[in-house]
Amino acid sequence: MLNEKSYDYLKNQLLYLGFGEEIAGPLKEKMGDGLQEFTLAHVRKFGEDETHSVLHFSKSEKDVTFFNRFDVTLKQPGKEDLRQTFFVAKEYNYTLQERYNMLNGRYVYREQPKMMQVEEGGASKIAPSGETYFAWRGLDFRQSDQHGNFIPKTMFWNHEKELARFPVAELANEYDRVRLVASLEKGNRANITVLHDGQEIKATVAANPKMMRLDFYDSNGRALAVRPAEKQNLSRAAKLNQGVHQQKQATKNERAKTELTAEGKNAKAQQKKRGLHL
Q1: Which of 134, 98, 132 lies closest to 17 in space, CA to CA?
Q2: What is the C-alpha to C-alpha distance for residues 103 and 87, in angstroms, rounded to an integer?
Q3: Which of 156, 189, 208 is the last residue of a domain?
């Protein structure tokens, strides 16, 4: 008999992690068979790339089914397949798209649990300490463990401070800025409008915490050199905002000047008046 509560939880978990709604049908069928362990296959396209995943599930003695891990094979035209196993915890999990970005050599920024060594049943193991921190997380393709999985790598870098140095039009609007930062933190190549050689052009940008920099690309995906010094010429929107600010400041200065002039005249009048009474 199907445990509906367990099924609903898993269905929502898979949807949140980026495996879509279509996997709910096969999941329900497998759980209905009462199997202690089972797997599900999943394929997702990212442009010309594809992720082929095998999802692993197991059932406890209390008839609760858990999503334990998934094995991903990244297929890219003209490149060798990359394989990696990702484990699923109770919380702080990365989505399939974020894992795809990691396999593409990019990093993802998010909250992570601090781990500590604990003793349990006479054995030592690594477990969450209850504290968390924010950092960039990616894969070190030069190192792998005994199972052939690439070693995770953590980087610390202030991406928002770095982004603020560049002539990106989306930074002129807080809503657009927040969306841009969120996209970069997911490891995406984010679409932007950037000033290059005095012209506003469409481009993409990706975070590169390993080198502590931002990587810019033109509309054809080629590397694009963007100079931070151009920020003073930002976009029409930023220029307009700057113009409004300057106009307001000029008005304040003019008002202050007028007030000082009036005060000066009053002071002279008072001086003259006192002179007459001497």
Answers
A1: 98
A2: 15
A3: 156
Residue 111 has pLDDT above 90, yes or no: yes
For the entire predicted model, the pTM comes to 0.80
Domain end call among 124, 156, 188: 156
Q: Give the integer Cα–Cα distance in Å for 215 and 212.
A: 10
- pLDDT tens sequence across 121-166: 778 888 888 899 999 999 999 999 999 999 999 999 999 999 999 9
- What would you report as the CA-atom Rg of the chain, rounded to the nearest whole angstrom? 29
Q: Does residue 240 form part of some domain?
A: no
167 neighbors 154 (Cβ within 8 angstroms): no
Got the DSSP string for 225-278?
A: ---GGGGGG--HHHHHHHHHHHHHHHHHHHHHHHHHHHHHHHHHHHHHHHHHH-
Cβ atoms < 10 Å from Cβ of 44: 16
51 CA to centre of own chain: 20
